[in-house]
User: Fold this.
Amino acid sequence: MREVAVPDIGDFKDVEVIEILVKPGDTVAAEQSLITVESDKASMEIPSPGAGVVKELKLKVGDKVSQGSAILVLEEAGPTAAPAPKAAPATAKPTPVPATPAATAPASAIPAPSAPPRAAVDAASAEPMTVKVPDIGDFKDIEVIEVLVKPGDTVAKEQSLITLESDKATMEIPSPAAGVVQELRVKTGDKVSQGAAILVLKATGAQALAGAPSAAGSTAAPALAPVAAAAVAAAPLPPIPREPREATQSKPHASPSVRKFARELGVDLSRVKGSGPKARILHADVQAFVKGALAAVPAAAPAAKGGALPFNLPAWPDVDFAKFGPVEVKPLTRLQKLSGPNLHRNWISIPHITQFDEADITDLEAFRKSNTAETEKQGFKLTMLAFLIKACVTALRQHPNFNSSLERSGENLVVKKYYNIGVAVDTPDGLVVPVVRDADRKGVFEVARELADISKLARDKRLKPGDMQGGTFSISSLGGIGGTAFTPIINAPEVAILGVSKSALRPVWDGKGFVPRLMLPLSLSYDHRVIDGAAAARFTAYLASVLGDIRRTLL
Ligand code: CAO
Assistant:
């Protein structure tokens, strides 16, 4: 029994395990890949130091590992074909090394994530400069699997120029300077070694050269080469393994940046068809996959189309209803056709939770009624909804995350400092959600007047697209119709929506006895990626307290 650990991987620390390629019970051959680790610019597989049976895994996907981190426990199958590593007998070798005398020294070094090898430049040249493959140790004839720039492109310093790949290691070669690509000297499929010209770069300004020591004492020439050379010397490319990929695994074939891109979008690369050489997955393939998946969503909605559903669900049933009785076919309205796919997208892409609560609006209703005569004189109704809008603004101020949007990248929450409340309006053609803008700056009468105006515009089909944009939170009130609770669908990119049902008189215990109180049911749907359950419960409890004592909107 032997514990297999991460080998000497140079300065490569806290690097993420992106795949575990074996499981307990698996029989592995010597040199068979066990895990894949990945930094920003390089990925590599760590092969088994010997043959045997995997007894126990010591890590999981997402763990960060460094040299010496335990990978698994291996029950060895007697003497193996793999030669025992000299320095660390119980350690997986990062990659097998070609049997050349010079190959022994850098065998275990792979690039540090913080300092990937930079492309070398022709030290003697002034602008434009030839960017070359840096010192990549003893490894020769590595295939260029992607050329990431084209003539005319402006590149930033450290921007990846090409991707090189051997059977088990992939790495991107970043630019040593900022500039404009003038000419490419490589193409996909070329085999390159140290010193091979990658492209001709015209550096843009002094900034690109700043901080670089001068080349061989020259003061006039742009001094990029020593920087590149130093970085490369410290971080040679991963050694090249002997085993062909096909012999070991069938994991998707993609460069680190493509893997990262796919992870950001939540794309499972095993479902993406690669269009590159040897079915390699390119950026464009991931993009095409996402576009296809998005396009499939609206197509899946109408039953008549019978199209394929996303997530490999069975196709929508295509039934001849007329076989079972008389039917009438009514075309969907334009509005339904537009809003349906949006509702569907929101429903399947947002993890919805609905929090239910109720507010005691006895006093509020009395206050509303005491003011209705006055607003009616002015020509509009003072509805409960106007008070709800004001109360929501107060709750949103107190709980700002409910007035936010998740950035598309999923990296940031954009919290809005304005309060535009969308209101779902039921029209004969379908649902529309016009927006009451800057509700925080308007009095309840003004909100009520505006509500009357926009609901009329909606029902007369006179809303303009701008009237329905810029919302930060929505309310869907079915209180005038009935029901006790429902689960409204969030109006993306908002993160929450309040559903309101019909208020009713209920017996409420006041400590001494039951008293009749007018209770308003609240149903708050929220995006669980942004808001957790406790926050939602606090929000509705706070909102109920505001509705219970509307003076709180003044605080
Ligand atoms: N509880 C009890 N009664 C309520 C109430 C509540 N929560 N909310 C409103 N009412 C009453 C009103 O007081 C009014 O009574 P009166 O006619 O006696 O004065 C009556 O119900 C009708 O109200 P309303 O609908 O005219 O006014 P509103 O401000 O409450 O709502 C609007 C306006 C535009 C939201 C509403 O007309 C509407 O379209 N609601 C449907 C929204 C919808 O479809 N949501 C679903 C989205 S998800 O598919």
Summary: Confidence is low (pLDDT under 50) at residues 80-116, 206-250, 298-308. Residues 383-385, 423-426, 431, 451, 455, 476-480, 488, 500, 502-503, 520 surround oxidized coenzyme A (CB under 6 Å). The chain has three domains: 2-101, 110-251, 350-554.
